[in-house]
Amino acid sequence: MGRSPAHALSPPLSSLPVAAPLRRTTRRPVIVGSNRNPASLAEVRVCTNRTCRKQGSLETFHTLTSLAPPEVTVRTCGCLGRCGSGPNLALLPEGIIVSHCGTAARAARVISSSNGDDGDGEVLKMLEALVLRKRAEAELEKGHFSQSEILFTQAINLKQSGGIHTMYKNRSVARLALSNYSGALEDAKEASALAPNYPEAYICEGDVYFAIDQFDRAEKLYSLALEIDPSLRRSKSFKARVEKIHLKATAADVS
Question: Superkingdom of the source (predicted)?
């Protein structure tokens, strides 16, 4: 998942091709190797070691996590070298090092290039969607579900390339809170269709079925999420869902 702990690079860092560092006046992070196929990006690793962290790598990590399409994993990692040129990223499987990726615009450029679109229009669209998404998430956190739904809808309608599966999932949460069960279910299913290995999409879908007392369906979807991510067993919120569904199902059987 997007926020996994640090991992060592494989192959060894010493064998990785290194892109030239950006000067501060350069608009684009250097992510292009001589034989680079933009569609080959599978994983981005963000150095969160001390120096890069001071240069804003955690913010870069969260931005990349928000912008990445389902097929691109974003993880943290240890030192990539070039410590004075951070925040530094490694693009896998090619092992290209990207330096000076300390702004949302540069993070968006990395993702748009991986989709084969290095134009400014796509980057601007991604950044606009990111702003709307952050506002929507803040409203969702406050319990302002109607405003959150509107903002997520605006972000989704931009049809930018990355992170849209998470926006559908979040809009599903807002719609469920508004008792819009059909809309919440539609969004949860869209999120899982876009990202079949995204467990939170199945949890959201299960939550909708739980809300409309279809406990068998809810339990199956929670089980599917657990198959995808066994670490959910340690999640207090997930365990609470399972306990509630067992209680409700038992009460329904008794009645």
Answer: Eukaryota
**Topology classification of domain 39-118:** Glutaredoxin (3.40.30)
Cα–Cα distance for residue pair 190/165, rounded to 1 Å = 7
The domain made up of 132-254 has a fold known as 1.25.40
Average predicted confidence (pLDDT) for the chain: 83
Helix axes 145-157, 164-177, angle to 10 degrees: 150
- CA atoms in the 13 A half-sphere facing the CB of 77: 23
Residue 87: both structure tokens together: 């925040």
Location of each CATH 1.25.40.10 domain in the chain:
132-254
Please give the model's pTM, rounded to 2 decimal places.
0.77
Could you give the residue range(s) of every CATH 3.40.30.10 domain in the chain? 39-118
Lowest mean per-residue pLDDT among 36-45, 153-162, 176-185, 209-218: 36-45
Which residue blocks in the chain are alpha helix, DSSP H? 50-54, 57-67, 104-114, 120-142, 145-157, 164-177, 181-194, 199-211, 215-228, 236-254
β-bridge mates for residue 4, sequence order: 75
Contact 204, 176 (CB under 8 A): yes
Nearest CA to 22 out of 105, 106, 78 is that of 106
